[in-house]
Write a structure and sequence with these properties.
The complex is a heterodimer of chains A (about 110) and B (about 120). Chain A has about 110 residues and is mainly β. Chain A is built from no helices and nine strands. The model of chain A has no long low-confidence stretch (mean pLDDT about 95). Chain B is built from no helices and eleven strands. In chain B, a hairpin with a 6-residue loop joins strand 5 and strand 6. The chains are: A mainly beta (about 110), B mainly beta (about 120). Chains A and B meet through strand 3, strand 7 and strand 8 of A and strand 5 and strand 10 of B.
Amino acid sequence: QSALTQPASVSGSPGQSITISCTGTSSDVGGYNYVSWYQQHTGKVPELLIYDVSDRPSGVSNRFSGSKSGNTASLTISGLQAEDEADYYCSSYTSRRTYVFGTGTTVTVL
Amino acid sequence: QVQLVQSGAEVKKSGASVKVSCRASGYTFTDFYLHWVRQAPGQGLEWMGWFNPNSGASKSAQKFQGRVTMNRDTSISTAFLELNSLISDDTAVYYCARDLGPGAGRPFDYWGQGTLVTVSS
């Protein structure tokens, strides 16, 4: 199972919106609404941001939103803040009853 | 509160095995699947497998099949990951993570603090 494809890095200025893409196949992202996003600050444990494509766990800011079209899922961060500087990973359930992560995206706040 | 507490760092020789533990508290251990995820230094997350603490059933990613064992001791609410025939590429932080449940495709809502496994030749 190959990792889902994400851009290596995305940057934006405070207050701007950025979008991170996550491209898979019809056997994972395109086949299920079981895409999740995780945020990982440097040296920290990953934290769940989005699940089931667009749902947010309680406590997660509504500046984070998710969507999906075909084999590509997206995470949008609105009103970018310095604290959003982190690595972001998508994950999807697959047709083999396994999971696969994306390659990861480093977000830089300029 | 839900907590997953993992065992301490390990240093192993190539060809050896390592066993990492993950002790759960704050919820009923057998009610939620657990996953194992690893992260090599400076690299991304890699899903290794899921484990059902109730039945003992598990499924691992294809690249680990035959080399990984997942089991548990329900009396101490602890899950174990054992990885055999270690190579240098197995050097990574190993995480256990709880499945949100129920059903398939659920995300990982709580994570352990991670266990660094270093494989030296």
